[in-house]
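Lab meeting notes turned into a lecture example. A postdoc, R.K., suggested we walk through two folding results consecutively so the class can see how the record format repeats. The first protein's sequence and structure tokens come next.
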Amino acid sequence: MSEADESDFEQDESNLVDKQQGSGQTDENNLVDAGLLELKQDPGLQTLEAEYDSLASGLPLHAAHSLSAQDTGCTKGPVPVEDRRAAGKTDELYGEMGWWAMAGIFHAIAANGGLPSEFGDFVDVGSGSGTAIAAAGLLVQHFMNDDEGQQRFRRLRGVECCVSLHAASSAVAEAWASQGHLPQMELELGDAADMCLTGAVLVLAHSTAFSDELILTIAERAEKAIPPGGWVVTLTRPLPRAAARGWDIVEARRRTVSWGAATCFLHRRRHDSAPPPCTYHLAQECYSSQVWFHCKSCGLDGDVGICAPCAAVCHGDCEGVEFAAHSPFFCDCKVAGGRCCSRVVGGAC
């Protein structure tokens, strides 16, 4: 149950024992760019931003947007314009992460264990102009430091299906190389569904307008390829059945990108492949900030919902399981009469 509007939900006390009243705190899911002001005070990030702007000037956003709007074909033939529009009924056909959204993502990854100790690749699925790859190459050196110095990605790879946009993105790759940055950017023309993720430790999927089939393909490939401690970042929606596939959704925060605010989901690969238990047993009916979901098939919507493990396991075969929020919450799978997997202390629900 969500903390924000709990008083609006009425339930028999036999099901909801000692349910606490909402504290009136701001719903975390309404926040955009949380912590950004502090990041912008970092002189190192300010210096790198100027370097990023120089690289991105090789293919400015407006030029990339124009190329995308004109290019109605891809490597697999013409794509209907309506199928390429971003979700949320926006008219944008193309968008970019931008420097500070990428900085926020890398800051969150560093705060939650960082990257695996062995070097691996950064892979951008739907790389567009290539500017997100340039940002990743700069930011990894700022945030991922160890006793042996700054960490770098082994390879910087991207795939883009729009022919003209891919061709123009070479300007960013050439600027990256001319300024002496390593490793070189590898920009591939092809379909995102065919992108090899072997060797990747961080995958960015610009998934706002991806089809269900494509996001499922990425989830299946990442499950096989990404090592423990590796990451997948998606936009607008998480990987399907993430917890059951071995992922912890560490964060689901709204960040400002070129088309507005988009929810960025940070999935970290678990060392233990078994899904974690229902979060209800951790704090019972006390609120804990976490990612949670609705299950419309089971009538769990509005302020009532399920934690990520229950969404993947108990409700894995349900239709209508959708991301709800990242906010103070406790799981209602047990108390609302769901078929909870929870493996709580004392047995199943």
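The second example is placed directly after the first for contrast:
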Amino acid sequence: MASRMQYCYNHVLPLTAMVAVECTNVGLNVLFKEATAKGMNRYIFITYSYAVGTLLLLPLSFIFPSSRTVIPSLKFHLGSRIFLLGLIGYLAQICAYKGMDYSSPTLASAISNLEPAFTFILAVLFRLETVALRSSSSQAKIIGTIASISGALLVVLYKGPKVLVQWPLESSEPNWVISGILLATAYLLFSIWYIVQTQVLEIYPAELIVALFYNLCGAIISVPVSLITQPKLSSWILRPSVAVIAVLYSGVFQSFSSLVVTWGLHLKGPVYVAIFSPVSIAIAAFMSAIFLDDSLHLGRY
């Protein structure tokens, strides 16, 4: 019985949790696209998301304290790394949301094919992953890396026919390429985030606290940027609309995602977490076609 529970915790639960995270991320992307189409500013959206996530995780850190008996104190070098996490995460979201402004959540999910490739390469460089060319596992990861990069390039560069729905995409061809560059940058930053997060957890193995301080640092970084870009207080007022739903959804599920991803990184490592990114492609294509009237194409359009 104990071995079965251990198996579920080490294998079944991480798989289920990562798939759930990808599903919630796609839902967030669709809501963000809809909210910004109605006038929501992306900088304010990110700020509210971090703030709501921080407020949700703060009481949880007291309700569910770390079960580990030995947790090092938060010193400057550790705090600076967590702040770096917040900065990387914030920049990644800016690039991702700006990229979606030029295209759609479907492209964002398709470009996420790059995330496992970037993460695997970085994990090897930082010695978090070993490569043995005769190992079937390493061979599969190398082939997967090549396939991921090829798939992302295909989506951005190949013009294919429509395969679902008749509505045209709003993005023009130049914007589609710019979007691909921005999204690729975002997923590179997310991969770096995974690596830094893994290193932080090796020093400070308290997932909930790390997730809390990550969201807090993200909020601290995003507030001045948002105030500079949107100094009018009227821009910060959330009126009953899809924007409110998007902000609440983002705050709740961003805290959930950051906590689950942090736990997954600590338990399974960065490559395992990143390989679930392509799961979002089919979900995003379906949701974008239903809720955003996007056409589904082979390749670009």
